[in-house]
Amino acid sequence: LHSSVDRSVVQSKHWAIVISGFGVVFGSIEVAHIFAMKSPLGIGLEAILPFLGAVGLVLAGYALWQGSEGVDSQYASRIVGWTIIGMVGMALIFLWILAHQVIRGGMFHHAHFILVNNVIAGALIGFVIGTYDARSQEHRDSMQRERLRHVFLNRELRHHVLNGMQLILGYT
C-alpha cells in the first residue's frame, strides 16, 4: 500500500510538471507576442493578459505539486486530462473559425498567437473543471467507502443482536 501511495505522489508531481511546462512554453510564446504587437491596447489585451494566463498555468502546476489543490494525488491525472481537453477544445474552435475566415478569403493576422491565447484559456478552464471533477470523484469514492463501512457495521450489529435475541429466546 505504501508503495502505491508513493507512486501516486510521484505521478502527481509529474503531472504538475506537465501543467507548469505548458505554462512556461505558452508564456515564452506570449513574450514573443508582446514584442510583435504595435499598439498598447493590443499588447495589453492580446499579449500581456494571455501571458498572465500562462503564469497562472505555472502556478496551477505548482499548486498541484504542493498538493494545495485539496485533491489526493491519485486524482491528479484527471486534472491534467481536463486541462488537455480544454486546450484541444479551444484550439479546435479557433481552427474552425480560422478555416471559416480563410474560406471566405479573409485575413487573420497573428493567427498563431491567437491560437496560443485560446489554448491558454482552454488550459485554465480545463484545470478548473478538472480540479472540480477530481474533488467530486474523491468525494464519491469517500462516500462509497463510508457506505461500505456502514453496511459492514450494520451486518455485524444485526448478527450480534440476533444471536443475543436467540439466546434470550432460548433461555425463556
Short description:
The protein is an all-alpha fold and 172 residues long.
Q: How does this model look, in words?
A:
This protein is an all-alpha fold and 172 residues long. Helix content is 88%, strand content 0%. It is built from four helices and no strands. It has helices spanning 2-36, 40-66, 76-103, 111-171. The model has no long low-confidence stretch (mean pLDDT 85).
Task: Please name the defining characteristics of this protein.
88% helix, single chain, 172 residues, elongated, mainly alpha
Helix content: over 70%
Overall average pLDDT: 85
Tally of helical segments: 4
Based on helices, strands and strand pairing, what is the structural class? Answer: mainly alpha
How is the topology of this model organized?
Layout: H1 2-36, H2 40-66, H3 76-103, H4 111-171
